[in-house]
Amino acid sequence: MAGDMPPAKNFTFLCGADDFLVGRQGQLRFAALAAEIPDEFSREVLSGFAGNVGEVETAVNRFRESVQTVAMFGGRRVVWLKDVNFLADTVTGRAEGTLQLVADLQQILTGLDPADTAVLVTAAPVDRRRSFPKWCEKNADFVLVGGDDGDGDALERVVLAEAQAVGAAFSADAVRLLLAKVGANTRLLVEEVHKLAASVPEGATIEDTHVAELTPNVAEGDFFEAAEAFFSGDLPWTLAALQRHFFAGGDARPVIAALQNRNRILLQIRALVDAGSVRVGPRGLEGFPGAQAAHAAKFVGATEKSSYQLFSQNPWYLGKLAGSARLPSLRRLIDNQQELIGAFEDITRRPQAQEEVLREMTVRCLAVG
Fold first, then answer.
1. pLDDT tens, residue by residue, 168-209
2. Containing domain of residue 354, as a range?
3. Contact indicator for 224, 257 with CB cutoff of 8 Å
4. Are the CB atoms for 80 and 45 separated by under 8 Å?
5. Are 158 and 21 in contact (CB under 8 A)?
6. Are residues 104 and 76 in the same domain?
7. Does one domain contain both 157 and 56?
8. What is the largest CA-CA distance in the chain?
9. Sign of torsion, CA 68 71 76 79?
10. DSSP string, 306-321
11. Of 137, 174, 249, 308, which is most buried, counting CB atoms within 10 Å of its CB?
12. Which of 195, 214, 233 is the last residue of a domain?
């Protein structure tokens, strides 16, 4: 009938790839639920963080006891199971004991009466291929916070939403530079937004010049400028960045490592571009999800984030690397790698001439275009 209302969901399930974003959203949702329950003794927060199967069992058992508890003075209760991490694709998450306990958790949630107990579960990260998250999508008030892992658009939304909350405005270039310098660290992104907002006059727009001056280079450590300059093909900028690095007492090895890591990533991007699997477009690497589906399984055993494994990287970051300057040819990138290996060998022979070695390598790589 037209007047029929959909049945109330037994519980609320908030999940995402980023524990910070999920936790913040969970705090807001719990505050809203708690506001409807004046008795503070009828509000309970439980930790779902577990490092092994035994701790998963403890968390599930505590949750069962909590939702079965009757409010001291009658009325409705609210229970928040927060920081659940055993739904991820980890050793603990894959354990047979954990899978059985998750089935027990599902049974508990199925039997809830939302009229008696409002339940909120927040989890990050979550392997959404598993049956339990899929069941939650159908049976809970389900919220995916921040998009899937590696969603660069979600990071941009975090910056813009936080800026709006504090009454600040960012130029598009400022947002891009902030994400490039900070990376996917959402906690630091939020802190940087607050710092930048406090540094400009009220009503002024935060520009990339403000970000360049005030935001540290976290995404690639202190070697961000040298790597950015080198792969932009700007010889004077690269030489000046190297001079600043060594003037501050820096060592050549971490610079070489940063350059090698980025060069390895660009080699893999160039191979996909040349094969027609992806295309560098205005919004990054177009066709990347299809390339990932076709080729990711070939990286056998490479599951951790690494410059050797293109598909372990943040897709937004890959698009930024490929689109920040003209993508070098495959031959140029292979030559770069050989030069970097040669530079490392050279500094072992001439440890007192590290800056000279990198300057000579830079000239050889960039002077040829």
1. 999 988 887 787 777 777 888 889 999 999 999 988 999 988
2. 221-366
3. no
4. yes
5. yes
6. yes
7. no
8. 84
9. negative
10. BTTBGGGS-HHHHHHH
11. 174
12. 214
